[in-house]
Amino acid sequence: MKKIITHKEFIKQIETALSKNKKTSINCGGNLFNEVSSKGLCTFYVRIRTSSLDTKKLLGRFPDLSLKEARDKANIELTRAKDENERQLQKSSKPTFGSYSSMWLSFFKVDPNSNDNSHKNNKRHDNLRASLKILKGLDSTPLDLINPKIVDSVLSKTDKTTGAKRIAIKALNQCLRSAVVDGIIDKNPCENMLNSQGLIAQRYRKPKLKGYAWVEAELLKDKFFSKLTNEPYIHKVFYTFVAMTSLRVGSASELRWTWIDFDNKVIHIPAEYMKMNREFDVPLSDFVASLLKRWEIQCIREENISPFVFYAKSSLQKPIRLIQVQDPVTNNTQKEVTLHGLRKTARTWMAKIGVPEMIAEYALSHEAKSSLVAVYNKYDYFKERITVMRLWNYFIYTQLPDEFKNLIDPPAQDFLNKCKSDLEDQLSKVALFKSEH
DNA sequence: CCCGGTGTAGCTGCTTTGAT
DNA sequence: ATCAAAGCAGCTACACCGGG
């Protein structure tokens, strides 16, 4: 290493260099040197040499900048370069996203020889693999250099749908979270990539939905039933059943013939098939009874003997897959109605015809508003619900197109008349109540 | 190559808990 | 006593896959 020269020596060298009228370099030691140009400009430079680069950086000109000042400046630059280099070295020691993610992914691969995970399959693994494929552009990036901006630029180059990209970001986050736990990176900069309000987040965020879609009861015919007239028999029975009983689709899909008591006019649903593990009795109206009876006869005629009222296509021993009945509804109604939304429809209608809050809530199998009431009030309003259900089912019946009405034995005319007058009575009571206030 | 079946993620809305 | 946040269970959407 060149020894550090003194101020006196430096001045002397500058003078000789200037007199030469020729480009000369004066080495001042410690990576600092001064280049004297042919035109007499004396410029200080510091040489910065690390593993990745070898360059000189301009510090200033003599005599504006003294030798001492230049040396101080040079030292600052050198230490900064050294730090930078160390960070770079550290960075490059981190594994790349490609290598880490493939290791991470292999964890989800189900080992067929292990009897521990016999209930699993490779769906999850395959889905994650698909997401990582979308992020292939990140494979050569070290883990600690991944940030939302880079992810965004990689994603914008692919032609996948926004939904697929969003899922890819979720997968990326899961992977990076694992990397944090493994101690490879300190934090995941993409953690809030989908949650924050930034421009990048907005590009991938899912538009918020306003609850489950539903329509007013009066629109059920046009917006729901009429759009499903071409569905198979079993689906039509399911839709009518769900609309009339206002059960959750999960409970309805599990319905077994043994739960239905035609004699006592009740459907008894065991606790394990209801939300919150509460057993639930549904009053069986004449409409629903007829609907189910005719369906049962049809099943026997077609020799589809199943413990389930709504059985799966794949096996008579399995309940119907919800997606089977769900998809036609979402597709045919242009997402204006969902099966769960029918409960809202029923609840709104009941409020409109003046059914007391308590009875309506029980009809939908909701817990009483106050837990104190729930503890002391064991009465389940079953008797009252019989009437409510009869009126609601009569109303649904009036909403059914012919293709659905055919599923039910034509009720006796005087029964229909009674339902009609009962409903009108109830409506007039509400009208009176309204007019007095 | 399409159609229907499948598991999972994320979301919704009810229920419970906790704070005032 | 009241209200809002957190927790939880169920619902829908999504992407994939295998069989026709």
TrEMBL record:
Gene3D superfamilies, sorted: 1.10.150.130, Integrase, DNA-binding domain, Intergrase catalytic core
Single biological process term from Gene Ontology: DNA integration
Single GO molecular function: DNA binding
UniProt keyword list: DNA integration, DNA recombination, DNA-binding
Pfam family, any one: Phage_integrase
CDD domains from the UniProt entry: INT_P4_C (cd00801)
Ranges of residues in domain Tyr recombinase: 205-390
Domain of life: Bacteria
InterPro entries hit by this protein: DNA_brk_join_enz (IPR011010), Integrase-like_cat_sf (IPR013762), Integrase_catalytic (IPR002104), Integrase_DNA-bd_sf (IPR038488), Integrase_DNA_bind_dom (IPR025166), Integrase_recombinase_N (IPR010998), Phage_Integrase (IPR050808)
Family named by the database record: Belongs to the 'phage' integrase family.
Protein name: Integrase
